[in-house]
Design a protein that fits this description.
mainly alpha, 2 strands, 72% helix, 7 helices
Amino acid sequence: MELTIKEVEQLVDMKKANIRYYEEEGLLAPGRNKENNYREYSMHDVEDLKKIKFLRVLGVPVKDIRKVKEGKVTVSEVIGARKSALQQEMAELSEARDLCDELIQRNDTFDNLDVTLMDMQNEFFKMRGVKIMRLDKVYRLEKYRNMCNRTWQMIFLIYYPAMLSLKFVLHYELPFWITLPMTVCALAAAAAVGAFDYKIAHYKAEITK
């Protein structure tokens, strides 16, 4: 049974950009249709994606999942490593919680907030800072993505119906120099949405590697 990527999205509850990312990382290798070269997915691919998602939710890095699929390590080994990492994270989170308690007691304003209370040489705070900065990049991309999405939707849902009404009801056709730029703008905005979706998925995957 051959499936399209849209069908796979629904079966696995995973975005197309994420599926593409896992393909790029060597975790998935769908077949190709000989006539149109489109990707064709099997139920085996669907099951693989479900397993990948399962391990990613547990926080297993993509590179470790690849090693498991290649038979270089076992699931038990990568889960054991993940458990150790979680124990370390719990200890570091406890330290962060203690810092939060201290800040609550101090009741600082923004102007007199003492940033030296946080040891940025501490590996947890250093990596946390990197992740937060990357997340801010994601939020910025999502903002632009939503702007592009609204743009092409507005053109297709408002401009084109109005243009068709003018043409078929009032028998007036807008000049080419108006319709062409609007069409190009709509297509460019729609393409930008896809590009932003891919970039956002890539950044999010990098954050949780």
